[in-house]
């Protein structure tokens, strides 16, 4: 079949608003083609519902489930998770079953889906990328059983949405012990509760991940006769995810590199009167052209005084000569995120006041980064950030001189000039492992952001006019090691001289 001919045929069908499926079968019939419609459908070479080494050798290596993460690593994640559960309940209960549903598709309007993003916990333990699946892990006399319930293969649906892995595909891809079609889940759970007397169920009951499965199956199974213990596994999983493996660290390095290089390009691209949305578009492009799948979150691209709105994401104003732009953006690369903030003058030159505040924030950030060691927690670093901002505010004379002798007033002023925390854990999610306490001492393998800022709203009459409307944040991503912290976003220009040079290159 000649390709142009097919294209023409389908184009005219579309004009006539003919259903595509009907168009395919009409085309085959009208061309005396002996193939049946379903034979046509299965001419696709892809077999899995996600990239695999067979179909996407440029992304996935042999032995990996997702790019960079091996079958073995996924398997040891599951083992460790169950071991932690057993350890936590030692002497209380022996048998455990954990139920981890995947995400489902979310639609923005009729038939139009948002970009699918897999549930992080489910992905961390399975590597499986299809929606409407469930991972069940349970202890057995001989160890651990991992069972994946996956969407059934369905030629009609696959014609529209692309191939599904099905049972065989899921087994081959992920290395779980068993796989079944999702409609077998209820029976499986039922027979588990018939065969087992005493066990603990690990399931997120307070915030069900998959509403439909929860209502139809899981809620009933979990509650049953009320005799079984129910625990939420999320907090334990967050503890486990907090420490990154060498393979994860490699992916984090890459996602940080990509975002750093993209920032460099965005800085070069900026000029007076540029629209914030164009800097956003440039960032998106530069990340994706470097193989990131998407931006990790809606970026903040805030010109001038808008930088003082911490979560400004409208990104639709013009940035004028003499104004700074604050951009908080990062990307997601094979499931791992970066999160960077830089603030720079669109015209390529800081004013005296802007440079002073910028250097203050930079000094604060440098102290905070040097504290990213196993001696401190994020909470410790936050307290020190406020101290350091206080020192800088006094130096800049942004606070009344009598504050300097009063520690409490100065710290309160610091919290007023920087209303947010110093940082957060970073990994598969941007605000990663949110249930992990910020009070625990940092450990090698953790990755955190360090992002102090000084924000001076335009309407603040208590500061000198030249400082009004300046909002500056500098954010880097830091890997904790046994010795010195490693700045993963080091290649993203940060010193004002480097930034000025770059913006003046104007591409
Ligand atoms: Mn951040």
CATH architecture of the largest domain, by name, is Alpha-Beta Complex
Mean of all residue-level pLDDT scores: 91
The DSSP helix count reads: 16
* Ligand inventory: manganese (II) ion
Major β-sheet, in short? 6 strands, mixed
CATH class of the largest domain: Alpha Beta
Overall 3D shape: globular
CATH superfamily of the largest domain: Creatinase/methionine aminopeptidase superfamily
Give, in spatial order, the strands making up the sheet with the most strands.
8-7-6-3-9-10
The count of β-strands is 23
Helical residue percent? 25-40%
Radius of gyration: 27 Å
Strand composition percent: 15-25%
Q: Structural class of the secondary elements?
A: alpha+beta
Can you walk through the features of this model?
By secondary structure, the protein is of the alpha+beta class. The protein has three domains: 39 residues, no CATH class; 177 residues, Creatine Amidinohydrolase, Chain A, domain 1 (3-Layer(aba) Sandwich); 263 residues, Creatinase/methionine aminopeptidase superfamily (Creatine Amidinohydrolase). It is 39% helix and 17% strand. The strands form eight sheets. The protein has a six-stranded mixed sheet, sandwiched between helices. The longest helix is centred in the middle third of the chain and has 24 residues. The radius of gyration is 27 Å and the shape is globular. The two termini are 45 Å apart. The N terminus is likely disordered. The protein binds manganese (II) ion (MN). The site of manganese (II) ion has 5 residues, from loops.
């Amino acid at each position: 079949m000649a390709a142009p001919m097919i294209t023409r045929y389908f184009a005219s069908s579309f004009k006539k608003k003919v259903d595509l499926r009907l168009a395919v079968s009409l085309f085959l019939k009208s061309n005396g083609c002996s193939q049946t419609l379903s034979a046509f459908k299965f001419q696709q070479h892809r077999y899995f519902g996600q990239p695999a080494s067979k179909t996407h050798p440029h992304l996935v290596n042999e032995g990996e489930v997702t790019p960079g993460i091996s079958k073995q690593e996924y398997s040891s994640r599951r083992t460790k998770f169950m071991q932690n559960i057993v350890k936590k309940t030692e002497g209380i209960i022996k048998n455990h079953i954990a139920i981890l549903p995947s995400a489902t598709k979310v639609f923005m309007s009729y038939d139009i889906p948002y970009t699918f993003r897999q549930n992080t916990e489910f992905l961390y333990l399975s590597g499986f990328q299809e929606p409407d699946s469930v991972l069940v892990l349970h202890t057995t006399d001989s160890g651990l059983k991992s069972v994946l319930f996956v969407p059934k293969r369905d030629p009609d649906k696959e014609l529209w949405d692309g191939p599904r892995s099905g049972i065989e595909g899921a087994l081959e891809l992920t290395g779980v012990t068993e796989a079944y079609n999702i409609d077998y889940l209820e029976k499986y759970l039922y027979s588990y509760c018939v065969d087992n007397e005493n066990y603990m169920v690990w399931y997120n009951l307070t915030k069900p991940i998959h509403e439909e499965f929860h209502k139809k199956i899981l809620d009933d199974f979990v509650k049953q006769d009320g005799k079984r213990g129910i625990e939420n596994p999320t907090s334990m999983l967050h503890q486990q995810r907090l420490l990154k493996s060498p393979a994860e660290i490699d992916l984090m390095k890459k996602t940080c590199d990509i975002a750093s290089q993209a920032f460099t390009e965005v800085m070069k691209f900026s000029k007076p009167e540029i629209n914030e949305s164009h800097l956003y578009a440039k960032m998106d492009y530069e990340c994706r052209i470097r193989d990131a799948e998407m931006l990790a979150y809606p970026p903040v691209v805030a010109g001038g005084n808008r930088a003082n709105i911490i979560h400004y994401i409208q990104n639709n104003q013009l940035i004028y000569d003499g104004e700074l732009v604050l951009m908080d953006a990062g990307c997601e690369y094979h499931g791992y995120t970066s999160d960077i903030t830089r603030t720079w003058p669109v015209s390529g030159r800081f004013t005296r006041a802007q440079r002073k505040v910028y250097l203050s924030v930079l000094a604060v950030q440098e102290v905070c980064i040097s504290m990213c060691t196993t001696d401190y927690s994020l909470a410790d670093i936050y307290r020190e950030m406020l101290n350091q901002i206080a020192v800088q505010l006094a130096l800049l004379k942004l606070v009344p001189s009598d504050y300097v002798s009063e520690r409490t007033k100065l710290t309160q002023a610091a919290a007023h000039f920087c209303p947010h925390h110093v940082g957060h854990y970073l990994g598969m999610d941007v605000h990663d492992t949110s249930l992990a306490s910020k009070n625990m001492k940092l450990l090698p393998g953790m990755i955190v952001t360090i992002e102090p800022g000084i924000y001076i709203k335009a309407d603040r009459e208590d500061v000198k006019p030249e400082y009004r409307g300046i909002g500056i944040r500098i954010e880097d991503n830091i890997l904790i090691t046994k010795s010195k912290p490693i700045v993963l976003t080091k290649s993203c220009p940060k010193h004002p001289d480097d930034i000025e040079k770059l913006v003046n290159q104007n591409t």
